[in-house]
Amino acid sequence: MSGVDYDLVIVGCGAAGTASALAAAERAKEENENLTIAILERAPFEQRGGNTRWTAAYMRMENIDKPADGLVEDMVSFSDSFMDRAYAETLRDEAGETLRWVESKGVDFDYLPTMFLTASRPRLLPIGGGRAIIDALTLRARALGVEIIYETTAWDLTLDDEGAINGIKVRMADGTSMLLKTSAVILGAGGFQGNKEMMAQYIGRDSHKIPPVSEGGLFNKGEAIRMALNIGAAGKGQFDAFHAETVDPRSKREEAGVMLFPYAVLVNKQGKRFTDEGVTTIDEQYEEVARKIFYECEDHIAYMITDQKMYNIPNYEEALQTDIPAIVGETIEDIANQIGVNAENLKHTIDEFNAACPTGEFIYNRVDGLATTGLALNKSNWSIPINEGPFIAYPIICCNVFTNGGLATDLNGRVVTGDEVAIPGLYAVGETSGVYYGKYPGGTSVLRCLVFGRRAGHDAVRYIAEKEKSYQ
User: Quick check: pTM over 0.85?
Assistant: First the structure.
């Protein structure tokens, strides 16, 4: 289109942004539309991709063509029915087709080992994780002429006299700013977990102490959400919540998950249990436990206590993604002293727990019904005595995988106002679009980035083509 720097600008180079860019470039080629498309990425090349770069990219799929049973029902019920059912249904209906599209770009999928030794829903993974998705989609997009501009931050949107997008202001690495004229913008810049001010505003007190799950989250500073809200976009998703995960605070690696606690006990700094560690499969309870650690435990930290039987659990290493060795002690008192909890309380907690454990067969990979009895807080499954030293401890804190609050959109990713009217030329995808409330339905985040990123890319080409015709 004449008079623009780029027909379409995508903000963010994660799964959602790259899917949008490639889908748009392919659709433009199919329809003989000569469009100029650019991706703006805050990070340098070697750190591009936001959260996607670092994630294993679990997907809630039976196989590459079929979503897990109950996908729609899980997504709606986990949100206490605040999620739009049509959104979940669209995800279900287009997931297989979209993953086949990603596969056609060179990404292979398989059932690789995950952190979840017990799981209520299957997890399909791209071989090479999220980075494989980024590398494959950007390679194909570049081949179709999409330009990727690194170390560039978008900070404001401009509108024409009719309220349609006509520009985006960007700031370069040297601090200078410029206006890019454009016909459409797709915001795929993640959430706001890398912005301590927004975290305090929406998540609340001490939220600055919640680390992102990976360094990719530090690039997600929320400008994309803010600049859309500033021009009348509606918010959606639970702004005061985030997807939480249990990790080892000693580790500096991405997603240093500690997911073995269903087979152990968790204690706070007083040496006392505070949750049912075995209430259900790990994939359906780790988020709630992470939240309890942050909101209910002193100094926002807890400790997993177990013994040598941990090493008998098949594939236990997969559930310990931390790269820091366990804290080991010959006695429970020794462990208590090393982790700085009350030794008398911890010894009493372990002795009381051991006495309440039942006899029966321990089965690590499904709920086994081995429940304690007689405790003020019983454990529902996998209750086995902790009595074979040397004893083992891991510290655990809550990390922020992604924030839930974002922009309201329709099913094509068009950003809408509080009156549910689409803002012409503005789209939001991935974590920038708000959809989650309550409990996160695991394995749906990257999946929705791809499905709705592709839809937004297609619709943006339609919008730009129609706008061009209106000027002729």
Answer: yes
